[in-house]
Specification:
single chain; about 425 residues; alpha/beta; Rossmann fold; Gyrase A, domain 2; Tyrosyl-Transfer RNA Synthetase; 3 domains; 4-stranded antiparallel sheet; 19 helices; globular; binds iron/sulfur cluster
Length: about 425
């Protein structure tokens, strides 16, 4: 069981992927891998659910949305930045970005007062989101406690799930408070509510694997509100099936009309099976068929939720070798650290160096397990040639850790200084992007 509120790290991602049915993420689903930022190239994003819907939209230049939740609970560090970098990159393909501040969840699960959550969210999180480049067109930041659609949706979604399922997914006990039990429904409300505003649209949620229980629940809830199912049958036929009992023939006729507009021509309708088979269609047609059916549902006044997609990223190790954590300042560089503080932490950081300088000169270092190298690779060294030079010098033994750390400190100084300037420059945009409803 994965616990979204107190997950302890693992390196065994393939086991989790197999256990929970997460698909491997192919960077080509977004764009040419050679042109991508390092977090994609280096396979930090390793898995997904349902990203094919988003990929299809990206390739066709059609709209999609990104949902990112943040639970204000401490200062932002470089681990948080990696999610922002991912969102910022996907935003370049025209995505609308919703950032939901989970202040109600923070209250229910971390005992954080709403007022304090608000101050922390605006003063630290949103400022850094903007400074790191997300403050472009199409961004909307909101608070769970103020967004009526999210809270209403959470209540409606609650009708489709019972306590036994919630216990099985989250391990809730008799002592779990009801606010905490409601938090996953609020999250599902967050994730699905862009489709109330924009109509059926693929929405991707970039998360760590510990958040997968929320995605599984939310995808099931989205599906339970659908009235059509586009699928391949066990005997290999492709079709659309009506999931409800009323007006089956009418629904099948409307499905057929919509699919004809999408260019499908050959149908066999069997109302007794609630089925509309598409002769000549293949598995690759299922997504456009599902999108068309969601459109029909929306026209009929239903939700027509497309299944929300997720991407999963690895957790970057902390500077001390353990999990990066806001509650252990020595493990992480915070985005508002003074350069001297960051320098002190980097100089004490765990590296991939050898036991002695002589051994390192002889055998070379191990940048792949070095937290100092990671800070340069993912955050501070932009030039490809430069990072390659550092890596090669490390591997060959030409570079020793003391000198390397001093260089890393200088890069970090530049990065933190630039980020601070950006925070100051974008401060005036806060009110533009923060919605009070
Ligand atoms: Fe890490 Fe640099 Fe040491 Fe290599 S030389 S292990 S990159 S600190």
């Amino acid at each position: 069981m994965l616990d979204p509120w107190s997950y302890s790290e693992t390196d065994d991602y393939s086991h989790l992927m197999e256990e929970f049915g997460i698909e491997p993420f192919d960077p080509a689903m977004v764009s040419d891998p050679d042109t991508q930022p390092r977090l994609f190239k280096e396979r930090i994003v390793f898995g997904h659910r349902g990203f094919e819907y988003v990929s299809r939209r990206i390739k066709r230049g059609e709209p999609f949305a990104i949902m990112s939740g943040l639970m204000p609970s401490g200062r932002m560090h470089l681990g948080h930045k990696m999610v922002i970098d991912q969102i910022s990159y996907l935003q370049e393909f025209g995505a609308r970005v919703f950032v939901g501040i989970a202040d109600l969840e923070s209250y229910a699960t971390r005992n954080m007062p709403l007022k304090k959550a608000r101050e922390l969210a605006i003063g630290s999180y949103v400022r850094n989101y903007l400074a790191l480049g997300i403050g472009k067109e199409g961004l909307e930041v909101y608070f769970q406690s103020r967004r009526k659609e999210v809270k209403d949706l959470a209540l409606l979604l609650g009708k489709k799930v019972n306590l036994s399922t919630m216990r099985a997914i989250y391990g809730f006990t008799d002592q779990t408070n009801m606010g905490h039990m409601n938090a996953p429904l609020l999250q599902a409300g967050d994730i699905l509510h862009p489709q109330l505003k924009l109509g059926p649209i693929p929405v991707v949620v970039p998360v760590g694997i510990d958040q997968d229980p929320h995605m599984r629940l939310c995808r099931d809830l989205a599906s339970s509100f659908r009235t059509y199912n586009a699928t391949e049958t066990s005997d290999g036929r492709i079709g659309v099936f009506v999931k409800v009992d009323d007006d089956v023939e009418g629904r099948l006729r409307r499905a057929k009309a919509s699919l004809e507009k999408e260019g499908f021509l050959d149908f066999k309708m069997i109302p007794a099976y609630k089925a509309l088979y598409l002769t000549g269609a293949s598995r690759s047609d299922l997504i456009p068929m599902d999108e068309a059916m969601a459109g029909v549902e929306a026209e009929e006044g239903e939700y027509g939720f497309l299944p929300p997609a997720s991407t999963y990223h690895r957790f970057i190790k902390g500077l001390t070798g353990e999990k990066m954590s806001s509650s252990k300042p020595e493990t992480a560089i915070f985005l508002d650290d003074a350069p001297e503080e960051a320098a002190g932490k980097l100089m004490k950081a765990v590296t991939g160096g050898r036991e002695t300088a002589e051994q390192q000169r002889r055998e070379g270092g191990r940048p792949d397990i070095c937290s100092v190298f990671e800070t340069m690779l993912f955050h501070t060294v932009k030039e490809e040639k430069e990072i390659q030079r550092i890596k090669e010098e490390c591997l060959s033994g030409e570079r020793l850790c003391g000198q390397c750390k001093r260089e890393a400190v200088e890069y970090m100084r530049g990065f933190l200084g630039e980020l601070k300037d950006k925070r100051d420059e974008t401060e005036h945009l806060l009110n533009i992007f923060i919605s009070e409803e």
